[in-house]
Amino acid sequence: MATQARPVPEGILHDRFQAVRALSRAIAAPLSDADATIQPMPDASPAKWHLAHTSWFFETFILRDHVPGYRLFDQAWAYLFNSYYEGEGDRIARAKRGMLSRPSLAEVQNYRGHVDAALLDALSGLPAEALNLVELGLHHEQQHQELMLMDMLATFASNPLLPSAWLRREDDAPPALPALSGVRAHGGIFEIGHDGRGFGFDCESPRHPALIHPHELADRLVTNGEWLRFVGENGYRRPDLWLSDGWQWVKENGIEAPLYWQSDGEDWLRFGLDGLKPLRLAEPVCHISYYEADAFARWAGARLPTEEEWEVAAAGLDPMGGNQLDEAGPAHPHPAPNGTGLRQIFGDVWEWTASSFSPYPGFRPEAGAVGEYNGKFMCNQFVLRGGSCATPRGHVRASYRNFFYPHQRWQFSGLRLARDL
Amino acid sequence: MATQARPVPEGILHDRFQAVRALSRAIAAPLSDADATIQPMPDASPAKWHLAHTSWFFETFILRDHVPGYRLFDQAWAYLFNSYYEGEGDRIARAKRGMLSRPSLAEVQNYRGHVDAALLDALSGLPAEALNLVELGLHHEQQHQELMLMDMLATFASNPLLPSAWLRREDDAPPALPALSGVRAHGGIFEIGHDGRGFGFDCESPRHPALIHPHELADRLVTNGEWLRFVGENGYRRPDLWLSDGWQWVKENGIEAPLYWQSDGEDWLRFGLDGLKPLRLAEPVCHISYYEADAFARWAGARLPTEEEWEVAAAGLDPMGGNQLDEAGPAHPHPAPNGTGLRQIFGDVWEWTASSFSPYPGFRPEAGAVGEYNGKFMCNQFVLRGGSCATPRGHVRASYRNFFYPHQRWQFSGLRLARDL
Amino acid sequence: MATQARPVPEGILHDRFQAVRALSRAIAAPLSDADATIQPMPDASPAKWHLAHTSWFFETFILRDHVPGYRLFDQAWAYLFNSYYEGEGDRIARAKRGMLSRPSLAEVQNYRGHVDAALLDALSGLPAEALNLVELGLHHEQQHQELMLMDMLATFASNPLLPSAWLRREDDAPPALPALSGVRAHGGIFEIGHDGRGFGFDCESPRHPALIHPHELADRLVTNGEWLRFVGENGYRRPDLWLSDGWQWVKENGIEAPLYWQSDGEDWLRFGLDGLKPLRLAEPVCHISYYEADAFARWAGARLPTEEEWEVAAAGLDPMGGNQLDEAGPAHPHPAPNGTGLRQIFGDVWEWTASSFSPYPGFRPEAGAVGEYNGKFMCNQFVLRGGSCATPRGHVRASYRNFFYPHQRWQFSGLRLARDL
Amino acid sequence: MATQARPVPEGILHDRFQAVRALSRAIAAPLSDADATIQPMPDASPAKWHLAHTSWFFETFILRDHVPGYRLFDQAWAYLFNSYYEGEGDRIARAKRGMLSRPSLAEVQNYRGHVDAALLDALSGLPAEALNLVELGLHHEQQHQELMLMDMLATFASNPLLPSAWLRREDDAPPALPALSGVRAHGGIFEIGHDGRGFGFDCESPRHPALIHPHELADRLVTNGEWLRFVGENGYRRPDLWLSDGWQWVKENGIEAPLYWQSDGEDWLRFGLDGLKPLRLAEPVCHISYYEADAFARWAGARLPTEEEWEVAAAGLDPMGGNQLDEAGPAHPHPAPNGTGLRQIFGDVWEWTASSFSPYPGFRPEAGAVGEYNGKFMCNQFVLRGGSCATPRGHVRASYRNFFYPHQRWQFSGLRLARDL
């Protein structure tokens, strides 16, 4: 949860609330009620569920708890739209979220309207503690906006017709791919974690010193073209390149390429929210698991960066920059721009790090149900950094820690290489 | 497939086609696009899929094969809406039918309209062979009408909100339950199977003599009240009452009552397409597996009838009578009417028999893909007889053989007791 | 259980008891303690367990229940060596029988000695009811002798070293394969089931009339050579030949040949208790599932016989004849002898029939725990007839009904073709 | 693998080789061939397999690769006794190791004798590289000695008779439990990892500076008595105490106590290689998973130490001290001795740390197949430190890193609490 002393001014919060809530609606705009109902796998949730759950979050932790006289939109919905908060009682099994043809998408949109009106109405009278929860709720909703894009993609990819959510936006001819260079970093003690300015999740705190060893980071992300070489040189068939668990995953699932790649016999295509398109070699590779990222790095004679190395490198860069989500549409990573120095740090694809998701020294989860936000997931997952083309601009920062299980790859994930010096 | 010499006259077929196709639409009327998209379990299919598959059947086996110049509505849809015809090529995995948010319900209804128009247009020019296939297609669609009701019920039962598809139709006060009597039948050789008059599926043929032993059949179905006694006397906890496979099924699945029953601590309720309602004791028990039917019969000191015994008993009764489906609505079994002699033979609930589904002596499946209709399922399943409240009136007959696996119970299935004499 | 009026004379029973018990020991003779401990799959049991369980049967149902003052060899062993008798209380999970390194094989042999001595000592004083149970126990042990051979084969086949239990007995040069002829049978009513002379299991009764339709039975079993043609003509790759459940079984398990066949690239070999040997074409095919037998018959334009057809044909033949088990050793089916008329009816391989294992009209299981012997398995299994090369001679008869699930094939099972006339 | 410049002198290696190899035999001494054949779960291996695999290691990497003219004991055994070395070719599936009744335990002991003789014979002529591999092989065998004890315990615990491997050695009356105190540690930069003196596995290197934050370590291990309070205060029923993955593990497996604990209704017992005995409260809790350790620490208002904190604390202590394995017997943790300062650092139980098993900065696996020893497991596992009562004395050291998956608990694992200062 938020680690900030003073809440955001109410006027700003008012506008941000409206903007964030509007983006969720816009993302769902191409979806029919049926599209928004499907759960393509237990990891993913229906779009309708995301729309409702983010509203439940505001309704539960702000309206119910801090607005006297507020009446729940529907008593029965807490059971449907609680995600994983044990402190908030029983809930529908995660794998059963796709059974909810009722309430309809329209009813869920009504629910959103109801919560929006009540919250905007109450905003000026909320105590600081509740305003912090509004802030948390907005960041929470931004996370679900990216999840919606991921889950919509997984949904359409499960349909043999491979529908597209949006028409393809015309791309420029892809630029020539800049050569890969290394950016050297010296060792030393650096401060890591959220610095207290603006919003941060609890897992980014406390800020603390970390010891960094001399190393070098690639100045751009690994591309589809480079990944094709890995495929061509039998990267998916050489056990020596893989972690033991990764190799088992490859064999059991018959993995031969990143998720959403398919070959038509001659050429590789990739499926996205804009449909099935030829693979562009200069773009960053996307939708790979930690196992794949790790194997590729080993094949390349390199390794993944640690999250501390990444954060130190990112500290001086603009978290609002790069290819991030500005409006609803088929998020897609772009080739690295020309130039020198670290590029693509923010946006394009989440970068797998070598760091497992663990508590920082002195970490304390928040009190109450929102204390379940991050802490209880600090096991078996790896940290990803930097946001992606599907991350709403303004959501991510240098200290931001995302996390997934090492086999997961429906998120917009790629990698940047690192080397010891 | 059909075992009939002469096709139905075209005018009659024309009207029947329109009536059958209209009923499917009416059954789907209460469904939203999302309702019609959900697949609650691999055994069940989305309503949308049923609507499309039944149309694919007409399009493939009649329009494509017998109407020169007919163009498929959409080339890609054969992959989506072929059910299990290996002879018709690859198809979507059965458990993935719930991924089809596209095409939408409206598009599927357009598809139906297209097929309807083309078929009615072509009807007068079709050869006898194709007319027989139309007849088959209508019976096929009636089967799917019952499946739609079963699958809609499974869908709504998977939603914690327990929505109802139709408002409850007012019931009369339940009649006093008639006492159970036995109807004696002498042994001998009887003709079994389809007699060649009217339509019959291939598995009902050839008609052949069968040897019946003296026995007695209950004059009515087993009721919810009788089943409650079985529950109360620990019927679900006594292994001596169960087949070995049945007992394993009970333990692994924690079975304690028929499907869709739930207890609120004091009373038993049952869920149906009209919502959650108090259990009515005089109604026939419904939604039980073969294992449960067999265990109940053992507990009652009786047995299940064989399919031959049942057919001989049913031979003289009116297959158009009883509680069958006349219009779209929440199919529900009724208490036995007062009277003497065999009642509830047709309609109310399908009656589990002791007979496994096997080929009749001399059975030959049809040539071509429709030969996969029944024959390849003649293993591991049990025969049910008599139709149910969800069976469209006119579909069933004395020689009709339905079949399910012994653990399945989402169909409208119950039992009638039998005893050796 | 036994359906016989008068028990076998005690002197004869005494000798038979010693002979049967000795054969079990002889079958286990090539096994080390470790060999006798392994459970290669949940369907199979360790040899040690068979040796102990058959003794537990005598100890429980005769010594404990009918011999005053008898003390159990070890109180704790009932939990270990009860197979599936719910009436006899809890027991080790079936899949955990392979955890019993203790008691040792030597201790189990001591147990056998103890039970043997006590039973032989008590024999002359036993009431008729108990003598019938001794008779049942001997037939029970003969069943387990065949199971031991099956399970030893499964055990050794699971060891990459492919050890042999016995050295190969020298075979004669295989005879020229007799051509296949059909033996015609007219229809009519025939008596089926155990005739009350000698021992019979409860599932063979009551004897009852059955209606047979005109048909033809092959005069010998299907051979390996014929099966190779089926393989070569893509029998395992044509879904039209298979039952739906069978086809799923083929695909999920990658089935391409009978169990224990392997190809060295050029030639087919088969593994047996005498090791890995070249496949001999004139021998009956063995270790096939019902699904395979059914698919082969369809491919051959034939069908499987019903159990009634088989029994009528076998009624006049000598059940002591044919290739059955006379002494411990690597049971192996033989080519059909020259001649005319039905051959290989008894022995060589169990013959799959088209009949599911169901109760005969009027069937009543025995009272008490031995009532669980057969009746509770009358579901989902198919009947096999005629005994095999691994069936102790004297155990089988025309009315004998063996049964397995349609996917099982570690038993010595093959097929004989039939056709409607 | 070894990170040491100079090999151990050959004379010392000779004696150590004999001692280590003798201990393996002694551990297996109470086992019958059958005991040594059973695989109680896929994670565990049969004792026979351990005995053979450790010999295969010497045979493959030293005798085959470095002793001209050496002939393999049996060509076929590499397939049986390779564990996970992809570089050494195919091998028996891990879950099938329990199928090896052949070779017998006696044959495996012969194999050991053969390898011992050849290796001792060759020792004086081996190049330094091979001598380092001998050293590695000895440490490898010591690891398998502990695994043998773990797997024997799992084997006997799977037998309803609960046999004991060794008679109970008489214990003293348990001492009064010393109170728990905290030992404070200041922060700073400390050297971590193997210092190059003596043997170390590759994963302990390179030695590198680590930043430690001020904290406090408990001076002794958590006891059974303390764990009983956790159980009594519903520790296994409060989701707020658990990691999300841990809570799922608890629910899916019905976890209610440490492995090998059982309640007789009144008292708690624990099963060990000396049989089923009353639980002694002063002894360290043993056989717990990471999830349990983490939940307990949260319940206690503490946390687990990091591996760096642990190593710094252990650096000055004698790794030969404490309750470690000196001879074959039922390894069992002891109560903490009286005194002040850190106790039980070495021996008794492996201590779960909060650190996931990751490569140290600059880590490089060895070249060749032994490079698969540790590196490929650096994912999804947690580090345990300090050795246990089942660890051969002399095997462990301050820099030693053991690792298991967070749900595993058949190892001798417990915990020590830590707190931030």
From TrEMBL, chains A, B, C, D:
Domain Sulfatase-modifying factor enzyme-like: residue ranges: 183-318, 334-419
Pfam families referenced in this protein's UniProt entry, alphabetically: DinB_2, FGE-sulfatase
InterPro entries given in the database record: CTDL_fold, DinB-like, DinB/YfiT-like, EgtB, Sulfatase_Mod_Factor_Kinase, SUMF_dom, SUMF_sf
Gene3D superfamilies: paralog of FGE (formylglycine-generating enzyme)
Pathway noted in the entry: Amino-acid biosynthesis; ergothioneine biosynthesis
Keywords (A to Z) from UniProt: Iron, Oxidoreductase
Transmembrane regions listed in the UniProt entry: none
Residue intervals of the DinB-like domain: 17-145
Keyword Iron: yes
Coiled coil stretches, renumbered: none
Name of the featured protein: Ergothioneine biosynthesis protein EgtB
Lineage, broadest ranks: Bacteria, Pseudomonadati, Pseudomonadota, Alphaproteobacteria, Sphingomonadales
